[in-house]
Write a structure and sequence with these properties.
Elements lengths: L5 E6 L2 E9 L5 H15 L2 H17 L5 E8 L2 E12 L5 E10 L8 H15 L4 E5 L2 H4 L5 E2 L17 E5 L25
Helix pairs in contact: 1-2
The structure holds coenzyme A (COA).
Coenzyme A (COA) binds next to helix 1, strand 5, helix 3 and helix 4.
Length: about 200
Amino acid sequence: MDWRGVHVTESAKGYIKMNLLLFSESNTQEVIDLFKSVFSASESEAEGQLIAGFVENLICTTRSQDLIGCIAREKETIVGCLFFSRFTVPGGQYAFILSPVAVSTEVQGTGIGQKLIQYGLDHLRYLHVSLVFTYGDPGYYSKTGFEKISEDIVKAPWPLSQPIGWLAQSLDGKEIQVIAGRTQCVKALNDPSLW
Ligand SMILES: CC(C)(COP(=O)(O)OP(=O)(O)OC[C@H]1O[C@@H](n2cnc3c(N)ncnc32)[C@H](O)[C@@H]1OP(=O)(O)O)[C@@H](O)C(=O)NCCC(=O)NCCS
């Protein structure tokens, strides 16, 4: 068990006792299946298939030092997963981007997503990461410290279809300053249709 221990959340089916852990390669197939089922239920079968392919690609094509995955496990089952991948900014700050996140449909809304993100952010702080980005719903990600960021401050690697979803937070206590120039994500995220 991870040293950060056991977390308890409450759901319709009672208390959920879960472990928060770092992703390891042996979790690969279960995690791909989790993303596929969660997004098939929340969006469509096609979206489930697409995200499963994306997650497989992310795991297979990203250097281990550039990928940090976190999982929430209830008994022997993975009920939540997220990935941070290396994000290269021209200022040279050590940065990652959070994408994607999934929590098992049956236990959504019980706090697992937020606990998992906080766990991941704590791990990034431990690694002395300075900046973390994400691209998603500000209403949700603001619960774990993300704030909207203008592309005048830090550019996204591709044109954004939803600029309101461009979010960031500083992990070193310093205010995010303008970082001029192009940014770069890992290969699996380097697809304009994802932005
Ligand atoms: C989005 C998701 C990761 C959130 O995880 P979760 O464990 O269900 O969420 P939590 O229990 O931590 O947080 C619940 C809170 O977030 C809100 N919330 C949950 N999903 C949300 C969403 N997609 N947009 C905005 N708010 C959301 C809930 O309304 C709730 O708010 P409240 O605390 O004010 O009542 C999860 O619902 C999920 O996997 N959804 C389908 C896949 C997806 O959309 N992934 C994110 C994009 S990669």
